[in-house]
Amino acid sequence: MTERLSDKNPCNSCKVDRQIGNPNRWECECSRCDNPNDWKNDCIKKLAEYETAEDEGRLVILPKCSIGDTVYIPIDFQNKIYTGTVDGFEYSPRRNKWVVKIITDDGEKCYEAFDDFGKTIFLIREEAEKALKEMEEKKYE
Fold first, then answer.
1. What's the whole-model pTM score?
2. 42-85: per-residue pLDDT in tens?
3. Over the stretch 75-114, which tens digit does the pLDDT of each residue have?
4. Domain that residue 130 falls in
5. Residue 125: inside a domain
6. Is 61 inside a domain boundary?
7. Alpha-carbon distance 29 to 103, whole Å?
8. At CB < 8 A and 24+ separation, what contacts does 1-6 make?
9. Domain contains 62
10. Does 134 fall in a domain?
11. Is the CB of residue 84 less than 8 Å from the CB of residue 71?
12. What is the pairing mode between strands 80-92 and 70-75?
């Protein structure tokens, strides 16, 4: 795991800057802090690394779920909500995006894009039921 620069303070003696709610958290005006700009520059370099990785397609932000989590998939033409279990994450060259591999309760495999969470796949059953109801209402408009 990489070093978390956001948890570091440029001055280990300055307790005020460590407070999350402090609006000047990133500014250290402590006379004991010799070079706060080194810390700021390290943060900027780390951000640049992440942005470069994102531009190159190497940065992947996983959905807020883990392998083994239960997911709910509303299917409007069947008026049904399928329940499944997250089985893994993989890159789909055909879709040109990262997907979540799901095993449904009836043993079928399906793959849903990360950006489908909250749209066509849900971690909370009530949200899936609400989405299914909205799908049904749109059918009859």
1. 0.62
2. 888 888 999 999 888 788 877 888 999 999 999 878 888 999 99
3. 878 888 999 999 999 988 898 888 999 999 989 999 998 8
4. 70-139
5. yes
6. no
7. 54
8. 2/46, 5/39, 5/42, 5/43, 5/46, 6/43
9. no
10. yes
11. yes
12. antiparallel
